[in-house]
Amino acid sequence: MQQSSLCFGQSSEIIQLKDAEIELLPHFLPAEEGGNLFENLLEAVDWQSETIRIAGVERLVPRLTAWYGDKGASYTYSGVIHHPIPWSEQLLALKKRIEQVCQTSFNSALFNLYRDGRDSVAWHSDDEPELGAKPIIASLSLGAPRSLQLKHKKHKDLRHKLTLTSGSLLVMRGDTQRCWQHQVPKEPAITEPRINITFRNIVTNHK
Ligand SMILES: O=C(O)CCC(=O)C(=O)O
Ligand SMILES: [Fe+2]
């Protein structure tokens, strides 16, 4: 069941799932602006290929990443410490618009580049301690549409699938990270790239 509402003049859908607070603004960025931003970021971002260690074995992360943020907003993700790249003027302006819609502030953002459908992100929750107990995560998608799958951690029958199109903004709050995992599965038929930016707030003096 989905409800529609208006959020700052934007159409938005509440994704109604147990133990989750998820809202999708399908047209957060107008198509032309989203397309321009996508081209710009593809060129301008210093995309990195990272390795992670799983059970003692080094593996390449199946996507390219970059970490932007305020000074000091360092973040450990999949066992890798990310020191932030300072915001550009353009990214700072984008961050402000997203903060207004979400009514919160963000001090960092993880950028993912899925070069094509062979790139992916595996099941996880954005529940690292530095994000605090009930993190608000705002996820902007640009470029090729990709599926985001969600599964409840306890109730194995509870699953959901969304398609994240270019210019859409997905906002996750409350218990979403504590109770659910999400992934962007491989979709080998997709040949076009996609960029996803998740805006986050790193709590610097967490326990
Ligand atoms: O690409 C996406 O839509 C999700 C990315 C994600 O889950 C993450 O960066 O934590
Ligand atoms: Fe995530």
TrEMBL record:
This protein's UniProt keywords: Dioxygenase, DNA damage, DNA repair, Iron, Magnesium, Metal-binding, Oxidoreductase
InterPro entries membership: AlkB-like, AlkB-like_sf, ALKBH3, Oxoglu/Fe-dep_dioxygenase_dom
Stretches assigned to the Fe2OG dioxygenase domain: 105-203
Molecular-function annotations in GO: catalytic activity, acting on DNA; demethylase activity; dioxygenase activity; hydrolase activity; metal ion binding; oxidoreductase activity, acting on paired donors, with incorporation or reduction of molecular oxygen
Cofactor: Fe(2+)
Matching PROSITE patterns: FE2OG_OXY
GO biological process, one term: DNA alkylation repair
The protein's name: 2OG-Fe(II) oxygenase
